[in-house]
Task: structure prediction
Amino acid sequence: MNTRQSLAHDYAESLTSLAQPLAALILSMEQDERVSAECLDAQFEYLSAIQHEQDRAAWAVTGPGMTAREVQTSRAYLFDLSEVAEGELFALYGTAA
Result:
């Protein structure tokens, strides 16, 4: 495994550890009647984006790998979505997630 493939592998693993608790949160939120559709949509969008980026990174492990810039761009994209998702949680619960 070359350096770019190792970087992609590590990034894919970090996204797995990010997606699992978010998926659990979404499952619990679906049972809460106070949760708005907008809030759930934001969480689903964030989780879907994480899973998409995770798939891209996993593919890159078996192929060309990822550059540090590609990882940075992916992280920035996910950060923007996390801000929206967290804003919805803040509006719902009144505290930062």
